[in-house]
């Protein structure tokens, strides 16, 4: 640690320094670190590579939370760890995981039911579609009883901030989240701005955001690779300009738990005006440390965590909401003592029994399967195969389980529907599963349910999830619809498929051969819709939704469009795997067409700053 790091002059020494060196200026007021004082006086920024706070400091961080208007209106404990969910924004940056407006709305409703405190609904300036999705979520989910805060993301630019405000202002509790990069690497190569220019932009843009909205979150992009002293100065400027939450992003998943905890502690101890503000955490999982980093940050004074369901997100993803929440719940006594709360306190506002439903819904909507050994929500998370483990579980579940599957809503559902089940029972079951759908949507899904019930003796929740997910994905009136697919295959026949598609109201039929019936069907679809070689199939997965010979086959395809360079997902389920595969492929192609005709400009991390 350098000689200036963490060094704070006494009040007497600072007074002497002001008079002898700085002509009595206020650049070195009591409590201000010497390196910040020197930088303000000389304009020289000291570069360091480690956080300013000593890693060996272990004393508890005292945080005195001040209830916000949202806390008071919703009755939520101001001392809790706030859950900021960015599944609809950062989660959507996962390759292929683009969501339609209808899908975003359904997920937002489930996130509110889950009990998240803030929903980052999107990046309004990115496209007309994203703006409308954020606006709709603000008008509906943001105005319900016990509403979450509805947040939109913007760069530190007036057009972005203005567009963001136009989208979120309809919510009962809107928030503008604006950001600018602060690491030397980003400032020099991406922003092409000097530190002084970044400081000026921070003041100007946070002030502008605050003139529109009283709840403003400010993020210093790539904070964990930024010079800590400069970071303190940026955050101090943001607070002075009106920021109410400070976010500390580990943008590239670079930091470690001790480093991140030390950085958060340093911010808590060195940033001016931080006393009554919330420090938030945002981090990616490139080194598999995101959750551990967040828990360290919470121990060191952060009280908001920015997460996604299933940990989806760009590259290796974000910190997984379910892992953070259940770590705080299962180890409640440990973390309650760290946060200076009563041992029986609920450390978050999350309804744990909605975790599993939320995970399944996100997986279905995005087409991104959850790995079997995924913590908390994976298929094997509560499975025991070892004989020793099984014996212990039979004697006492606590021998090998630290939580009950039912505590996250897994295994709670016992109602099984069949062909004699009525519309009321069907709607009731969907509501229990988290799907709040309109009468029109219900009618479409009910028809699919009856068709499936004629083929299967029992229709399970997994079947229903696949049905409703398919119907939701068709709500935006696709350009291309599958009319019929017929295949011929077997030994020694050449696999052949005849496909008929409705393309903008005109039916077209094509036949093609392939390495198998599914490949032949895909070739037929592409022959109708796209020029040869413009689309590449990157991934094709088939899973059995339930057990048995009559199980639904759930198919996920991932395509790359060489025209736009974008990757998209498509998924569908059917008792006929060929039909499911073709439907999933057509769904993905519709996403390709929407991207090609969209006026969207992408997501903020990929923008070139102007």
UniProtKB/TrEMBL annotation:
A single GO molecular function term of this UniProt record: 2-isopropylmalate synthase activity
Q: List, alphabetically, the Pfam families matched.
A: HCS_D2, HMGL-like, LeuA_dimer
Q: Does the keyword Metal-binding apply?
A: yes
Pyruvate carboxyltransferase domain segment(s):
81-345
Enumerate the InterPro entries for this protein. 2-IPM_HCS-like, 2-isopropylmalate_synth_dimer, AIPM/Hcit_synth_CS, Aldolase_TIM, LeuA/HCS_post-cat, LeuA_allosteric_dom_sf, LeuA_bact_synth, PYR_CT
- What EC number(s) are associated with this protein in UniProt? 2.3.3.13
The pathway it acts in is: Amino-acid biosynthesis; L-leucine biosynthesis; L-leucine from 3-methyl-2-oxobutanoate: step 1/4
Gene Ontology BP term (one): L-leucine biosynthetic process
Keyword Amino-acid biosynthesis on entry: yes
Q: Which UniProt keywords apply?
A: Amino-acid biosynthesis, Branched-chain amino acid biosynthesis, Leucine biosynthesis, Metal-binding, Transferase
Q: Which family does it belong to?
A: Belongs to the alpha-IPM synthase/homocitrate synthase family. LeuA type 1 subfamily.
HAMAP family listed in its UniProt record: LeuA_type1 (MF_01025)
Q: What is this protein called?
A: 2-isopropylmalate synthase
Organism listed in the record? Rhodosorus marinus
């Amino acid at each position: 640690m350098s000689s200036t790091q963490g060094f704070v002059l006494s009040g007497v020494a600072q007074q002497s320094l002001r008079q002898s060196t700085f002509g009595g200026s206020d650049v070195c007021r009591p409590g201000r670190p010497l390196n910040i004082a020197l930088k303000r006086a000389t304009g020289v920024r000291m570069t360091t590579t480690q956080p300013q706070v000593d890693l060996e400091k272990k004393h508890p961080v005292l945080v005195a939370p001040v209830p916000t208007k949202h806390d008071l209106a919703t009755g939520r404990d101001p001392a809790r760890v706030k859950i900021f969910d960015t599944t609809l924004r950062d989660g959507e940056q996962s390759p292929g995981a683009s969501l339609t407006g209808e899908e975003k709305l359904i997920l937002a409703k489930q996130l509110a039911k889950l009990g998240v405190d803030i929903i980052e609904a999107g990046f309004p300036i990115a496209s007309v579609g994203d703006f409308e999705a954020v606006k709709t979520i603000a008008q509906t989910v943001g105005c319900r009883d016990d509403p979450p805060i509805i947040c939109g993301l913007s760069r530190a630019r007036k057009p972005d901030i203005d567009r963001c405000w136009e989208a979120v202002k309809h919510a009962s509790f809107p928030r503008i989240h604006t950001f600018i990069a602060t690491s030397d690497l980003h400032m020099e190569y991406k922003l092409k701005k000097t530190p002084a220019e970044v400081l000026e932009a921070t003041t100007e843009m946070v002030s502008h955001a605050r003139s529109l909205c009283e709840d403003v979150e400010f993020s210093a992009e790539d904070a964990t690779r930024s010079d800590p002293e400069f970071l303190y100065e940026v955050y101090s400027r943001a607070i002075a300009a009106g920021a109410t939450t400070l976010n500390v992003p580990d943008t590239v998943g670079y930091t470690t738990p001790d480093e991140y905890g030390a950085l958060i502690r340093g911010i808590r101890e060195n940033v001016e005006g931080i006393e009554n503000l919330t420090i938030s955490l945002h981090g990616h999982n490139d080194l598999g440390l995101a959750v551990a980093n967040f828990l360290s940050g919470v121990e060191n004074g952060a009280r908001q965590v920015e997460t996604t369901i299933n940990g989806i997100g760009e590259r290796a993803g974000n910190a997984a909401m379910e892992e953070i929440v259940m770590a705080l719940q299962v180890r409640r006594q440990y973390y309650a003592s760290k946060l200076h709360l009563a041992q029986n306190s609920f450390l978050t506002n999350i309804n744990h029994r909605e975790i599993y439903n939320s995970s399944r819904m996100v997986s279905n909507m995005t087409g991104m399967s959850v790995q079997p050994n995924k913590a908390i929500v994976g298929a094997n998370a509560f499975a025991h195969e070892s004989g020793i483990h099984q014996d212990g579980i039979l004697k006492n579940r606590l021998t090998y389980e630290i939580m009950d599957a039912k505590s996250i809503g897994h295994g709670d559902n016992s109602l099984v529907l069949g062909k004699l089940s009525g519309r009321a029972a069907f709607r009731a079951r969907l509501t229990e599963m988290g799907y709040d759908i309109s009468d029109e949507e219900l009618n479409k899904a009910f028809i699919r349910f009856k068709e499936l019930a004629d083929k299967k003796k029992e229709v399970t929740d997994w079947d229903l999830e696949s049905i409703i997910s398919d119907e939701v994905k068709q709500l935006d009136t696709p350009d291309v619809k599958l009319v019929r697919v017929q295949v011929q295959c077997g030994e020694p026949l050449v696999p052949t498929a005849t496909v008929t598609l409705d393309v903008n109201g005109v039916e077209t039929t094509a036949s093609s051969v392939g390495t198998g019936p599914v490949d032949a069907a895909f070739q037929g679809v592409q022959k109708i819709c796209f020029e040869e070689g413009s689309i590449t199939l990157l991934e094709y997965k088939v899973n059995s939704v339930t057990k048995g010979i009559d199980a639904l086959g759930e198919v996920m395809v991932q395509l790359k469009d060489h025209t736009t360079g974008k990757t998209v997902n498509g998924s569908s389920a059917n008792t006929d795997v060929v039909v499911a595969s073709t439907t999933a492929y057509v769904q993905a192609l519709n996403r390709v067409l929407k991207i090609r005709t969209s006026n969207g400009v992408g997501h903020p991390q990929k923008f070139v700053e102007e």
